[in-house]
Amino acid sequence: MAQARDGWQGAGSGGADQRTLRRANLALVMHGLRDGGPRSRARLAADLGLNKATVSSLVGELMERGLVREGKAERGAVGRPGTIVELDGTGAYGVGAEINVNHVTTLAVDLAGEVVSEHRSSVDTRGLRPEQVVDRLVELLHGTLADVAERGSEPVAVVTGVAGLVDRDRGTVSVAPNLGWQDVPVAAMLRERLDEPDYLVEVANEANLAAVAEATPGDPDRRDILVVHGEVGIGGGIIADGRPYQGRLGFAGEFGHMVVDRDGRRCGCGRTGCWETVIGLTRLLEEAADPTDDLRGPELELEERVAEINRRAAAGDERTLAALHEVGRWVGIGAAALTNALNPGVIVLSGYLGEIGEWIEADVEAEVASGVLAPGSGGTRIALSTIGLSAAVRGGAAVAIDHVYEDPTLVPRAGVPELGATS
């Protein structure tokens, strides 16, 4: 863990430098408590390389901001036991949102990552203008924000995932083939409809957010992973050495548009044979059911379709099982190519792919074993998401709440004016 210094060295340091150092040290304490668990002030000071007076001051400010609280006396301490300091789970809230082909979703979590609000609405986003889709999302956001307001707070950030290429700096969806969007300023549209809120409003690729949700903090097996997130389209996310990797301009992880079958079907992006044309939910439904089958009708929601596929597979329906095996084979072909290129520790099948995982996992593993050059598949293993279809929106909420750990001053102090305090 990086250590902070008690004072600022160098002549001519102004108030801005002092405040920057203060924020950095506040963040250091927050990270220390999240990653290392509750501890006394003395233990925190020793672990973080700060003196006790500084830590006491920092903890005092974090308590004023409602981000930490005192717990029980420290066990096993020599001499007079110190009081444990721990994160206050109810001290801050983050909101995730998602725009996908068939639905919009919102979800709020507290500082401890506990879900405090969740709303979902089925929407045929391809049949609406971007403005109409954003309006539908804002309707859900108002409900989620009201749930947070009932707890006496507002979020530190709202992070919205969209199924497409996202320019995060501009808050713009550059290209979303399955939505039919191009250069849509989603962040600006949300800010306007939310009356220019004080909290942060950001937009990201939904599969990248799903990857954040799957990267369990502190789990060494999840420090180098790829997430293949599937619904109608297929996206991906990369976690390298415990951190999201988004590429030079933020467009990394578009696994669904790897060309795997040059003689295959035309993709929504305009090319032929993209991976999502053979493993996306649309392809599975086409292979598993006739056009008149209720499974392909507009009445069923995503969860209902997936549940029905699983039900038919469990009942031994041959057509369903054959369709699942074919999808699994193609998932494995793409996963093998990704393994040869990136050699992750784990490839996590997320979204609908995780929900049907029990039927396709063996096929995926067989293709990876035969298609990867390195012995033993290079140590890469296949895992199924345990988060389900909410991975992307949970990732958005996680990114939103992470802003508090990077800058605790985003949460105001109760009844205390913000002044430039020293470290």
Strand order of the largest sheet: 6-5-4-7-11
What count of domains describes the coordinates? 3
How large is the radius of gyration?
Answer: 24 Å
What percentage of the residues does DSSP assign to strands (E)?
15-25%
- Note the overall shape: globular
Class of secondary structure makeup? alpha/beta
* Head-to-tail CA distance between termini: 19 Å
The CATH architecture name of the largest domain reads 2-Layer Sandwich
Helical residues, percent: 25-40%
CATH class placement of the largest domain: Alpha Beta
Q: Quick check: average pLDDT?
A: 88
Number of strands: 16
CATH superfamily of the largest domain: ATPase, nucleotide binding domain
Poorly predicted residue ranges? 1-13
- CATH topology of the largest domain: the name is Nucleotidyltransferase, domain 5
User: Counting H and I runs of at least 4 residues, what is the number of helices?
Assistant: 13
Q: Mind summarizing the main beta sheet?
A: 5 strands, mixed
Order of helices and strands: HEHHEEEEEHEEEEHEHEEEHHHHEHHEH
